User: Fold this.
Amino acid sequence: MQLNRKARSNREIVYGINSVSAAIEGEVEKITAAWVVKGREDKRIVELENRLLENGIHVQQALRHFLDEKTEGGVHQGIVIEMQATPPRDEHFLEDLVENATRPLLYVVLDGITDPRNLGACMRSAWAFGACCVIVPKDKSAPFSPVARKTASGAAAVVPLVAVTNLSRTLTMLSDHEVEVVGLAGEAQSEIGAYQFTRSTAVVLGSEESGMRRLTREKCTSIVKIPMAQGVESLNVSVACGVALYEVSKQLGSLQE
Assistant:
């Protein structure tokens, strides 16, 4: 996980009302410092400030330019916290998750997503549609930066991010455990809505520019597409992620758990 350069090596900067609220809700014990913009009267910020104080966290008043510098120009909405960094989970975590599953699970696999906003948006969709984790390769993937966390809008505190050394090997492991590995590609013949999802499923999405890599595609059980109106070439990867996860979660009943 890449940390904000302004933060210490074992800390990360989190900012924005939704992200800070989610951190207080799920990771409050990791918060080490907090700042709110001086002179701003905003009920939402006052509420967050009170929640921080109730948890024994000192909240400092700061000028806007200090928060701008702390977030490297991010849209902080007047509130910034510093937290102990949470590194991504690894293959061992994923294997335990797969082996101990007692119901069909929904996995999200991102093959080479390099835009942190797309990563954050995909994590938010994963949270919204009941996915158990988001899997990314350690290399050639967007870092889970403060920008990604803010875009995720709270998902980071709920949905584990799993970084694997070898994505192809990970997909083989999933298949060996009877997880359906379904890739998303615009040129596929089958539509996702016609596919029958009845067991644990990993939805695989490729990079913004070139889609899934060859080895990743070869590990997929099936390749499907999202039907679109004539003349529309493709969807943004985070939008495609949301559409695909909705369809799979609807069939698997992920939102009813």
